[in-house]
């Protein structure tokens, strides 16, 4: 039984990190991370080898497929690109928790055939998790059911992006306003399809509002753990300055209800100040 928590990145100017090996430092705070950089291009194998070298074997990456696969080709005729990507991330070994298929908002229920074909042909040695943003998947029960059926055939998970706390009231800062313009406003989902549910949660600038908003998620994770699932929760804020501390706080809150939970590691101290 394990709970994975993390952020949308492994480095931030506001975080207490050393000047080098920032991923190693991050991995001493959290046990999972969203690998968003892979959306822009397939990483080099040497870069992935470096990621693996800086993280323990029980650390988990959720690696996003490149945009050429999901957004440009819309999952069609991408066998070569997918295999090149999977070969590049092979050095992660067991650290590769799931291949994250984030689909564009224009990917509608009528496009489910492309997703079904993609998942059917995808190599089975990997776990897959899908994030959709078209409103019909959240507002139309038939569309949601059809998506769940497609995912169930491949034992794939549906990744919800919970923006309820963010949109609970109007933005009060530039960061919140930017998040309001970019993040999807969709109905909250609480249903896990597999033994490895993944939730992306974004709060507000206020840590107190962020914590108040995740109360339901703490209860949900406790339930999932009691069912033998191993959930992964990614904590976001509009500027992510407090996301690292909030991720650890979330884990601590769940651990208070589940004392047998595997603890997080002890954070590495940042570099001491120098004179030069």
UniProtKB/TrEMBL annotation:
Transmembrane segments: none annotated. It holds the Pfam family DUF72. This is DUF72 domain-containing protein.
């Amino acid at each position: 039984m394990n709970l994975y928590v993390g952020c949308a990145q492994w480095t931030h100017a506001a975080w207490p990190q050393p000047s080098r090996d920032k991923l190693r430092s991050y991995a001493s705070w959290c046990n999972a991370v969203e690998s968003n950089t892979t959306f822009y291009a397939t990483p080099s194998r040497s870069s992935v080898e470096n990621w693996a070298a800086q993280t323990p074997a029980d650390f988990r990456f959720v690696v996003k497929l490149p945009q050429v696969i999901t957004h440009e080709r819309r999952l069609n005729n991408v066998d070569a690109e997918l295999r090149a990507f999977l070969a590049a991330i092979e050095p992660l070994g067991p650290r590769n928790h799931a291949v994250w298929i984030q689909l564009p908002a224009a990917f509608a229920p009528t496009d489910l055939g492309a997703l079904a074909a993609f998942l059917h042909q995808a190599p089975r040695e990997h776990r897959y998790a899908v994030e959709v943003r078209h409103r019909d998947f959240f507002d139309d029960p038939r569309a949601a059911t059809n998506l769940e059926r497609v995912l169930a055939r491949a034992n794939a998970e549906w990744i919800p992006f919970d923006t309820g706390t963010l949109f609970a009231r109007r933005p009060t800062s530039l960061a919140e306003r930017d998040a309001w313009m970019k993040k999807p406003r969709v109905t909250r989902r609480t249903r896990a399809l597999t033994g490895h549910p993944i939730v992306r949660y974004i709060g507000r600038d206020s840590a107190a509002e962020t914590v108040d908003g995740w109360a339901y998620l703490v209860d949900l994770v406790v339930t999932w753990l009691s069912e033998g699932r191993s959930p992964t929760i990614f904590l976001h804020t509009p500027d992510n300055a407090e996301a690292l501390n909030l991720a650890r706080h979330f884990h601590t809150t769940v651990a208070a209800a589940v004392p047998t939970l595997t603890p997080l590691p002890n954070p590495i101290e940042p570099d001491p100040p120098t004179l030069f």
